[in-house]
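QA checklist item 7 of 12: single-chain prediction sanity check.
[x] sequence parsed
[x] length recorded as 201
[x] structure emitted
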Amino acid sequence: MNVTLHLAQDPEADELLGRSPLAALVGMLLDQQIPMEWAFQGPATIAQRLGTDDLDAEEIAAYDPEAFTALLARKPAVHRYPGSMAKRIQQLCQYLVEHYDGDASAVWHGAGTGQELLGRLRELPGFGAQKAQIFLALLGKQLGVRPEGWREAAGAYGEPDSFRSVADITGPESLAKVRAHKQQLKAAAKAAAKATKASGT
C-alpha cells in the first residue's frame, strides 16, 4: 500500500492512511458520529502521540487501557467518545495480533473473492455490515485490492462514482458530494420518522 488518499484532507494524515493498512482500518473504525475528516485524522494523531510514524497492532494491543484512553482523550480529542473508541481500537488490534500476526494487510491479502474479503472484514471488532462494505469499496476503488466480485460484495458502495461514502472521496469536490448524499439520507430518515409519528404508528 502506497497511494495518495484524501480522506483526512490533511497531507500528513492522508499520507499515513495511504501507506499504512492499520491506519486505514483504524480511520474506518473511528468514522462514526463525527465528521469524516476528523475520523481519518485520528490515526496520525495517535501515531504522533505514541511517538512513532506508523501504528503497530502489537504495541496498541498491549498498551495499558487507561493510558490509551487518556492518549485519545487529550485535546484535541481523537473522537467525541475517546473512551469507547480507545477500547474498540485495542480490541481491533488484539484481534489482528491473534488472527493475522498483527499484520492488518493480511486481512485482504489472499482473499480469493469479494465475499470472502467481506466476511473477513465483518469479523473485525467494530466492523458491522455497512462499515465492512464501505471499507471493501475503499480497498477496491482506491487501494487496488480487487478480488473477484468485490463490487458486488460492496453493494451500492461499490458502484462507480456513487459518492455514497469515503470510498469515493478523492478531493474536496467529491467530499462535498458525499456529504450532500449523507445529508439527503438524514433528511429522508427524519421525514420518515415524522410521518410515522404523525400517523401514530
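[x] summary fact logged: The mean pLDDT is 92.
[ ] second reviewer sign-off
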